[in-house]
Amino acid sequence: MKNTLTLTITAMLLTTAVACSSSGTGTGKVHPSAPGATALQAAEGTTEITIWHGLGAANGKAFTKLIDQFNAANTGKIHVTAAYQGVYADLLAKYSAALRDGSAPTVMLAGDIATAYMIDVGRSIPASDMAAANPDDLHLDDLAPAARNYYSVDHVQQAVPMNVSTPMLWVNREVLRSAGLEGSRLKTLDDVVAAATTVKQKTGRTGFTMQTDDWYIEQLVATAGQDFCAPDNGRSGKRANSITIDSGLGKDNITKIANLYRSGVAVDGAPDGSAAIAGFQAGQVGMMLYSSGIAGTLASGTSFDYEALPFPTSGPEGKSGPVIGGAGLWLSSTATPAKQVAGWKLETYLTSPQAQEEFSHATGYIPINTKTADSPTQKAYLEANPNARAFANQLANTPVTTATSGCVSGAMTSIKASNISQLQAAFAGGKSVDDALATAANDAEKAFQQYQEQLGK
Fold first, then answer.
1. 90-145, pLDDT tens digit by residue?
2. Which residues of the chain form CATH 3.40.190.10?
């Protein structure tokens, strides 16, 4: 799930990006040569490295277990100190401060929305460079294309995806049955809109809800086969300078969802998703758009028959699909060569089939190493857990396009805040959808321009 950073945090990050860029390494294109295995082999004693992350609660425990296993397997060679640095905003703020005083970690597990910022400050070695220099370690081609695609910019693999989630359509089977509906027929957004209306009319219950987060607006655009940002979601050599939610099929999709709210068929899910989850678990909502990451919560507190279905699409087949969530591993370009190779070996382990399977079972994240599917225990797990199977199938079947890559821009944090403010007004009926989307697009253009000016580009 994506967390929306505050404008204050955004401004602070931009300031840091400018400071780092002025050092001559902040373009995101100039990096030292990636070291090979000999750099670690030549190091004396135990090479100490650090990794910062924002995985808390059960996810944090599962991650720490993997780190402990890696340390045990590399005793006397590599030792990793993992440090939880708080939620996404806190993690990135601490990383920004660390860039200034030279205390940045060897490896940074940064949330997906931080991708552009991590590139712009230019303190990471592209994953593709490390993979080429260390052919006996991680093979990037083993990773799920949709996950790899998100962290690739200008055809360069910048980071390694670690924990990946995907948005799903969660349905209350009992409510659908009472309305004479079948979940298997909910393939498109139009199917969902019609079903939500039928649920309301025939049962009196709420037909639809979703977390009021801009990640889901981005999904409505991507599943229309439309780039959220222009040009090309900022991924083809030119920086993004506008958003497209006020035009095309993406606008149509957002309007359809807004009309569900305005007509009383849908209910506000709250920015943190609490109202959406509470309503769904209480059996009062027929369908809910939410991340696969909610699986653990639903499993422990839902008494009725429910399931996760693929996120509904509306665009051309093969060109439309959802955008992943989660976080990626970034390797420091300022660490010593020995630490860089040690960090790469850690990334290799964390994304290995065995580690990804274990982490997935403990957290609900989707294994991003495609070889995990060959594991007998994974096959048995998916057979016993159809929702997990649905997550994996959606990730595997997501087409690799600029639309499904998501927008890469450091301005996205402030853009998302504006989008949600405008859309909340539209959903509540306090503003027309056209006016809300036009204002959001105008605010986005200003945010892009401000970000570029502060970067000096």
1. 999 999 999 999 999 999 999 998 999 999 999 999 999 999 999 999 999 999 99
2. 7-165+324-374, 167-321+405-455
SS3 labels along the chain: CCCCCCHHHHHHHHHHHHHHHHHHHCCCCCCCCCCCHHHHHCCCCCEEEEEEECCCHHHHHHHHHHHHHHHHHCCCCEEEEEEECCCHHHHHHHHHHHHHHCCCCCEEEEEHHHHHHHHHHCCEECHHHHHHHCCCCCCHHHECHHHHHHCEECCEECCEEEEEECEEEEEEHHHHHHCCCCHHHCCEHHHHHHHHHHHHHHHCCEEEEECCCHHHHHHHHHCCCCCCEECHHHCCCCCCCEECCCCHHHHHHHHHHHHHHHCCCECCCCCCCHHHHHHHHCCCEEEEEEEHHHHHHHHHHCCCCEEEEECCECCCCCCCCCCCEEEEEEEECCCCHHHHHHHHHHHHHHCCHHHHHHHHHHHCCECCEHHHHHCHHHHHHHHHCHHHHHHHHHHHHCCCCHHHHCCCCCCHHHHHHHHHHHHHHHHCCCCCHHHHHHHHHHHHHHHHHHHHHHHCC
The pTM of the whole model exceeds 0.85: yes
CATH 3.40.190.10 fits 7-165+324-374, yes or no: yes
Q: Which superfamily does CATH assign the domain made up of 167-321+405-455 to? A: Periplasmic binding protein-like II (3.40.190.10)
